Amino acid sequence: MRYNDNKRAVQEMIPKGTHVPCSLTDVFGTIMDNQSSVLLEIKEGESDNPDLVTTIQEASLPIINPLPKGAPIEVTYQFSADGILTVIGKDLTNKKEIRVEVERKGNLTPQEVKQGIAITSQITVTD
Fold it and tell me: CA 53, 79, 23, 61 torsion: positive or negative?
């Protein structure tokens, strides 16, 4: 999530169609003086509007010594072939980091999976 002119905006970290496994890093800045934590919002979706994407995890990076506005915070997204997303947030000034792991097996609910199985079981294949 980026803030542009004090407005929330989504920062795409892993674009749709990126080959997996992959690792992408970007550097963000704190948004105010004396900031003492950074909220990492891990979202999924294709919109640049934060209200139109799904939050899949949140984590807070505590900052030991409050930082001035614009202090660098490095965020790395690592997506493995087995569906594990690791997000690493680093306070580059104080050298503090947090790691969050999210297992992404798919987006279907159990009910949607059952419906899909029911539909595909009715398909007849002919030569």
Answer: positive
List the chain pLDDT tens, one digit each, 127 residues. Answer: 444 455 666 788 888 888 889 999 999 989 899 999 988 888 888 888 888 888 888 889 998 899 999 999 999 999 988 888 999 999 999 999 999 998 866 666 667 667 766 776 666 655 5
Domains in the chain (CATH in brackets) are 2-121 (2.60.34.10)
Cβ contacts of 50 within 8 Å, gap of 6 or more: 1, 8, 9, 10, 41, 43
